[in-house]
Amino acid sequence: MAKQIAVFGDVHGRSDMLKALHKKIKHFYGDIPLYSCGDLVDRGPDSSGVIQYCMDNDIEAVIGNHDDWLRRLVVNLEFEPFAMTPIMGGVATAISYGSTLAGKNGASEEDIAYEIYTGVSNEHKEWLREQEVYRKVALDSGQIYWILHAGVTEPAALSFYDDSANDDEIFQHFVKYRRSRDLLLWARPKFPYRNASIGKTTLQEDNLYKFRDGAVQIFGHTIRDEVIFGGHYIAVDTGCGTKKYDQKLSAVILPENEVVSISEDDLQEWLNK
User: Fold this and answer.
1) pTM of the full predicted structure?
2) Which of 248, 232, 64, 208 is CA-nearest to residue 148?
């Protein structure tokens, strides 16, 4: 257990943003444990560097939907060609591991998969193998946090609900089956948020699962302009590596619920500290 932790959102290949964010957290809070909500890879230019940074700094992660294709390739020898499409951005990940065929017309799926597989070091393969789909973290204060990628909705959790089951057993069922496991990677939960473009807060109610012991779930995957605190949930993806403009990587400091962010405007300042 720890007294204090930081949990950050989707990085998407921006190792520079992650390094700057880590420096900023250390500056204000010291060397506290860091956790990732997944989607470390794809789209940005340095996915391999992001994973290396997590390894070098003992950052614990959960698998995001973008990480999953790479993990399945290097662990199970399964290749998903959809990962190479522009919407996924896997070509950038492949290139960061030395691929010369990814994104090229005429290259076969088998050759691309083999090139990526051989380009990923054994150390990275083992690290990817060890990452979980979710992590349960208890702080010294007794507060419990479930770190997920896409978040878990009430309908999804209740599909495994049993009066005699606790939340740990429910999540064991989630990861036991591929279809339900994928819900933790791909789901799009509903929750109100501030829409900066129109200056209003949406009125939709959240459908996120409320843990029976008062635990809080923290997730990324769904981009918002700012970190969203919903009481029983925290949404931390603020667009790093994905937004064309105003990219921002954010972390929440727990249990204080304080936010630390890095934007393009202060990126170099913190990298140079």
Assistant:
1) 0.94
2) 64
